[in-house]
Amino acid sequence: xxxxxxxxxxxxxxxxxxxxxxxxxxxxxxxxxxxxxxxxxxxxxxxxxxxxxxxxxxxxxxxxxxxxxxxxxxxxxxxxxxxxxxxxxxxxxxxxxxxxxxxxxxxxxxxxxxxxxxxxxxxxxxxxxxxxxxxxxxxxxxxxxxxxxxxxxxxxxxxxxxxxxxxxxxxxxxxxxxxxxxxxxxxxxxxxxxxxxxxxxxxxxxxxxxxxxxxxxxxxxxxxxxxxxxxxxxxxxxxxxxxxxxxxxxxxxxxxxxxxxxxxxxxxxxxxxxxxxxxxxxxxxxxxxxxxxxxxxxxxxxxxxxxxxxxxxxxxxxxxxxxxxxxxxxxxxxxxxxxxxxxxxxxxxxxxxxxxxxxxxx
Length: 362
Ligand SMILES: *Cc1c(COP(=O)(O)O)cnc(C)c1O
Description:
Largest sheet: 7 strands, mixed
Bound molecules: pyridoxal-5'-phosphate
Strand order of the largest sheet: 2-10-9-8-5-3-4
Order of helices and strands: EHHEHEHEEEEEEEHHHEEHEEH
Low-confidence stretches: none
């Protein structure tokens, strides 16, 4: 097999050790004679896999005791509906939900939420072509909002929050962290809800993580599907219906691997180094451009453009020939994008940087 580096935005690269362990355990998990895929989700084998995964995630993110960790299906887009269905009932109907619009994903979230509540765009960086996070002082929040939704890392636009918002008055903050969860240390207690699809930085597609403060359970709208009502899901330890068992198993292996690497703080330092290396190559001259304001450049998703876009196909073909895969930008914004999640080794970033320099004739 030729050696490659996979820069896909998601589903994305996983740690090699995790894939090797999964391969070794594929046919017979720990002497059970079964593949994890074949196990009952209510059997002792899978329950132990599940509990280890929850325990490790709680430890990695220092999730306080008054938060539930839920493993759901439906992806980030599913949560765009599931969040308002669970939280809009906190206020008299129709409730208002505040949004900070910083790019494609928060845009999708607010559009979906408008089906269940009034939506107030408290701030938007649309005028700046989604290249920054509007300063918190400029946000026009609704005093009685059911919650405030933010996307702390805009995967397509490459914009990442460099602060955790603090809002007076007790409005819970819901954060879509799909593409940078576990990449940096966060203070979970600053948020009411954190959610993320697993396929960026955690594991396989099909698993969605929700971390929710306990006082936010039990306020769902009557139309909320039972299988997506967080209170019901929490009461059944994410097994009200069959959870994505194999995806949970792989996520658990990723959590254990992260712990062996020193946890989130250690991985964050490596992510800072990787991002620095890549942005320095993009900034070296005008051959490439990343358009995001410096303080908000994402450490995980790095969109960039060639100043001569007629070279795009040649750039991608040359990258592929060197085993640098999935660098094409999202179709909505064009250009290139390198996603450098936790599982991308610095050697992969260095290989990309070498190619960037070579292609630019440096
Ligand atoms: C990928 C992504 C989503 C969508 O996830 P799906 O699992 O495809 O529904 C939502 N939000 C962000 C920030 C993402 O990066």
